[in-house]
Amino acid sequence: MIDFLWGIVVLIARAFYFVLGIAVAYDRMKRLATQMTGADKIVAVPADPKPETADALRRSD
To answer: In terms of C-beta density within 10 A (0-12 exposed, 13-18 middle, 19 or more buried), how is residue 47 classed?
Structure first.
């Protein structure tokens, strides 16, 4: 029973370490991109705006 519980603890620890590794790699890639482009800071690009339909344009008046 103890081996099973330790197995679960080790699985959770490995999953946490895996997710942490992905987060660190993502951050490093963003920092590398800022160095390669020469940008002063990390800029998040907003999503493209959705075009308004004709009904929405009529209602806004």
So the answer is: exposed
pTM confidence score = 0.57
Contact residues for 40 (Cβ-Cβ < 8 A; gap 6+): 34
Identity of residue 33: A
- The pLDDT tens digits for 1-59 are 899 999 999 999 999 999 999 999 999 998 898 888 877 776 677 778 777 777 777 77
Whole-angstrom distance, CA of residue 32 vs CA of residue 21:
16
**Residue 38 host element (H or E):** none
C-alpha angle with apex 22: 10 to 42, nearest 5 degrees?
A: 150
